[in-house]
Specification:
single chain, four-stranded antiparallel sheet, 0% helix, globular
Length: 107
């Protein structure tokens, strides 16, 4: 499936050699803030959306900090803003074979 993310700025992006592409989270377009997570696969030039399972996703935000720990198969985000509030929460996603789960470490 080609699930190209909508146009945005102030998003986060990291490269994952394990996933074979670029992972994009959040960002904004005008006053619309996003909390989606997408993968751009380099080998087939296609986007796919990650749909977290059994979890509550982080609030939409832009300008968060993001880090990928490939050895733990975890993607972390911290902070950001939704245009009204500056956030100081820490979240991570765990990438399994068939699913992605997210966890809030702080609120």
């Amino acid at each position: 499936t080609n699930s190209t993310p909508s146009a945005r700025r102030d998003h986060n992006m990291v490269f994952s050699d394990v996933r074979g592409g670029l992972i994009v989270f959040g960002g904004r377009n005008g006053d619309t803030y996003y909390n989606d997570l997408s993968l751009y696969k380099l080998d087939n030039n296609a986007w796919s959306a990650y749909e977290p399972t059994d979890c509550v996703a982080p609030l939409p935000r832009a300008g968060a900090a993001m880090a990928l720990l490939t050895t733990q198969k975890r993607l972390y985000i911290f902070g950001g803003s939704n245009g009204t509030h500056v956030m100081n929460d820490l979240w991570y996603w765990t990438f399994g074979k068939l699913c992605v789960t997210c966890h809030c470490l702080t609120r």
